[in-house]
């Protein structure tokens, strides 16, 4: 029995295309009339304010308010593009998921983006906020805006592949803000 090896070259139709970021279309509350047409690349700022607190930090509720470039050009720039109420545990879950995403992306050394994200997300939010209820929302807001500032410059060209950690972080933050 003999095996012959035939060289196979990928044809133009089977070559991999570079990874890219797609624009999200979200349906708030499941209604088609309440569509949200903004992409993460349009976000300029995220504001986090406390809405309720019962002593247990994990059960505290915060409102994440998203401001986009389009809302800044309106006559009333203080009107947000989107608001969503989240528990503190949701923010911590997002931080941990982003940390995991950039941690497992590279085998030997991390890219600049993954190093920067790792530096921002390295410590748990709980440990830095013990007995500081009045500063919790400020720390959450700072974390969210730092992540957005690192993600927004994400631009894909047809010739350059994007780090998988970047794409995973983009997806995680988009899903967090829109669900």
List keywords for this structure.
alpha+beta; single chain; three-stranded antiparallel sheet; 16% strand; 5 strands; 179 residues; 6 helices
Briefly characterize the structure.
With 179 residues, the chain is α+β, with helices and mostly antiparallel strands.
Written overview of the protein:
- This protein starts with 25 loop residues before the first strand and ends with a helix.
- It is built from six helices and five strands, in the order ββββαβααααα.
- The chain has helices at residues 69-72, 88-103, 112-121, 125-128, 136-151, 164-178, and strands at 26-27, 35-36, 43-52, 61-68, 82-87.
- It is an alpha+beta fold.
- The relative contact order is 0.18.
- It has a three-stranded antiparallel beta sheet with strand order 3-4-5. It has a two-stranded antiparallel sheet with strand order 1-2.
- α3 runs antiparallel to α5 (136-151).
- β1 (26-27) and β2 form a beta hairpin.
- It has one domain (26-178).
Q: How many individual helices?
A: 6
**Whole-number tally of structural domains:** 1
Taken as a percent bin, the fraction of beta residues is 15-25%
How many E strands? 5
| Estimated structural class | alpha+beta
Overall spatial form: globular
> What is the mean pLDDT?
70
Q: pLDDT below 50 for ≥5 consecutive residues: which ranges?
A: 22-36
Helix content: 25-40%
Q: Whole-number radius of gyration?
A: 20 Å
Distance from first to last alpha carbon: 58 Å
Main sheet, how many strands, which sense, barrel? 3 strands, antiparallel
Strand order of the largest sheet: 3-4-5
Helix and strand run: EEEEHEHHHHH
